[in-house]
């Protein structure tokens, strides 16, 4: 019985010592002290040779129980200490989450490019191609091919920067249409294109005039294209650019390359049509010009105007940006003041 | 074209429609209305006053004390500064409470101790522009006719009780540059038939025009029609109120009854006229011809005009007496003494008039009408009407007969069109009756018995020639609002950006992600800026006739523009500036060819890349920060292996020791470098880094198809090597030695340390590289790596005289 008591006493002693252990190192030391190869439990079991064979199984069982119990005590205490240690670590690692984050400096797309890409995407979705042409053009493609022969009074509508008598800075993106028209193979399907880009006019720069600005023109040529199709297309465009509730209205106008020609107004997005300063009390804002492609324009490109027809439209991203964001000086778009440009970072 | 609604009411019944609503309808169906003015809204309370007395105020040099009767027995005291005020005059009086167009509000006041209870008005004070006020009324108050009714409203006398509609007339609708034309147009819009008064000439049959004048033309193309009438026994008087009023209110200054009638008739019919003082002509022959070289003419405005064969002139006795269609000559113009007038009504070739008006910078109401075309049906009618009116107003007589050259006759045009064509083009489903009714509203006869429809177009609508023109008339009168909205129902084709357009967009997003904002600058710039930063060996493309030196040449580099942007921002306390621009540069080819347009990508960066914050110190952009951006972009384009950066000193605008030419496949495609410190100082800039690349070449480059490579499963083995070399040895030199001598397992080389300083001998630098060896098929053995590594070190020593540390 002596050994049994020794074992019990050992367990009690281990309980006390483990309980008093301060850190994981002490726990490990205690494990070695009690359960190690030369530990106290082993030590006690060395006396087994003096125990009668009858009692041996009982002592053996007891010894295993004590060993297991100490193992459990050690494990529990170890877990407890580990948890404390972790908690202490977490406490030490606590930071002020309200401090500012590290700046990620990104640049932003120019507001005019944003508008152009938005319009491009709308028309890409409707099966149009985007075609960019040259900014320096010939008089022939810029004027004559869009039905503006020499000395046509409508040439006054567009004052032109000439380089030579035949070469000029394009006054609109229409020469791209003329060049595309003459190359298009209608056996491969209809022509649906938009042409965005810079254009130039002989204007003195002021709040509402710029010698350089942007234009996007669109052209659809096929059999059976109607003015109703033009109206529907422009309605989509107006709603995309100015909001779903917008309506459009068409008014007669004149462009040499379309007949009939119309100006297109969108119902005022500021006041909804009641009349305000943005729409000059009319409820409507002029946003683009359009019309049914003039048969002469088609014939000059070698296209049978009896068989094919279509529509064209043109708008100014500068003007759209001015209207949409209340920009009152067109020069802002070309001054590249970061404080101006950064305002258009916001997309939502 | 400014349209008086009262004048228009002479042809149409407008009693049921408000001017503003009329303007709306005109805009929606016909011609854009710029503005509607109703002066009476603010000027209601002007009255006719009779000046009873006007005396100088003793201590003033120009003020007068007047007593003005303003109706019945009521008189008021008014202080007036006008030099022309006199007792007995009928004048326009603004009583207290009236607000004048210039913002002045009339109040009771005292001037020099004299009570002033109103104001006697000049025309300018009532909103008329200086340029339309009759010369004698320019410097004082306006004097009404003596029969004006004292105490009555003053507005009707000067036409301000009317409404004015300002039409913005496009070049195709020159038919509406006349009141009769507008009458037809508004009649069509309102579905009313306009009624115009008939004009009868009561001429003197005892004489014939032949006894006075004969006319001839040199070229019937230039002058298809030339007509003249003679009005004799005239007195040139001031025009009556009704005529002055009509002219002033639409923007024309009354001069005298002869000139005023020519202007009035031009407004009514659209036909410009010219009146010559017959007695100032030297002989009885008028000939229209091209001017000769070295000929000149002193025009009405007193300026001597040098002429050339581009100009068409009216000649008499061999000498030019007028610039056809543009301006009369000084010696033959009508004066107070004129007794006989030769009145011209003609048709001149529009392009000739246009050229003359343009080259002499003499645009007039008359020339612009000739340029845009005339209603050939009223050339003589306008002449008759004007002649009779001049005779009536000046107590003269029209001599019978018209001297004329008439090579064309006004003719109706016929356009045939199928109903289907109309409906197909418009997307409508109109029936024939509807179309016919719309044509009737325009006053066009139609022939429907034989289909397709034939429409007869009178000469007054010379803009209508083809089917599409008829379709436009149908569309606008039917109403654009009644055209449905549909989408094209054609074969669907995919819409997509070209690979290049896609890459341009990716590049924008990439640059923005890297912290650069997109700039858009002017392509036109100064000559010097156009050339700066460009290695292209030619002058820039220049404008023939620039508006300013600032914008006279097309840029050959984007960098000057970007630098201007940087400077602008830095000057406004934007410390960090990082811009990119994608745009065209222009390279001249030869005089008569289009220049090459090349799309470039450029960037300009200055100031802090990282701003000082609670964790980090400020770090400015440096060469390597900018280079790193480009290197990552080259990875995106898939051309990294073909790109090299080669030191260059050929850009005089850039720092000679901090500039590299960017080469792709050993061809120069761009540059990266620091703005030359001297130039930076000129612009007040700190270190500024720039790059510019020919984007067309890189985006057009053929790329290998991207094929996924398996992720490496065998670990790589690393070796580090550090050595000291001459400071002139480039990183690129080290890389090429390593690449050539590194053995087949060397997969990556990375510089991890670069040092120059006190522990290193002067003129030398220490470099440390980390090398990664890898066999894609198997784990590398230590001995394999060691053997290669030793070979590489030996090569460094042999080739670069490196001392391995």
TrEMBL record, chain A:
Catalytic activities: tRNA(Phe) + L-phenylalanine + ATP = L-phenylalanyl-tRNA(Phe) + AMP + diphosphate + H(+)
Record's keyword annotation contains ATP-binding: yes
Domain Aminoacyl-transfer RNA synthetases class-II family profile: 111-323
Keyword ATP-binding on entry: yes
Pfam families (alphabetical): Phe_tRNA-synt_N (PF02912), tRNA-synt_2d (PF01409)
Coiled-coil residue spans: 4-31
Cofactor binding comment, as recorded: Binds 2 magnesium ions per tetramer.
Name of the protein this chain belongs to: Phenylalanine--tRNA ligase alpha subunit
The gene coding this protein: pheS
From TrEMBL, chain B:
Record-level Gene Ontology MF annotations: ATP binding; catalytic activity, acting on a protein; magnesium ion binding; phenylalanine-tRNA ligase activity; transferase activity; tRNA binding
One Gene Ontology term, aspect cellular component: phenylalanine-tRNA ligase complex
Record CDD domains: PheRS_beta_core, tRNA_bind_bactPheRS
Complex formation: Tetramer of two alpha and two beta subunits.
Signal peptide: none
Domain FDX-ACB: 712-805
Domain TRNA-binding: 40-155
Keywords associated with the record: Aminoacyl-tRNA synthetase, ATP-binding, Cytoplasm, Ligase, Magnesium, Metal-binding, Nucleotide-binding, Protein biosynthesis, RNA-binding, tRNA-binding
Catalytic activity from the UniProt record: tRNA(Phe) + L-phenylalanine + ATP = L-phenylalanyl-tRNA(Phe) + AMP + diphosphate + H(+)
Protein name: Phenylalanine--tRNA ligase beta subunit
Chief location: cytoplasm
EC number(s) reported in the record: 6.1.1.20
Highest taxon of source: Bacteria
Cofactor names: Mg(2+)
Species the sequence originates in: Alkalibacterium kapii
Localization per record: Cytoplasm
GO biological process, one term: phenylalanyl-tRNA aminoacylation
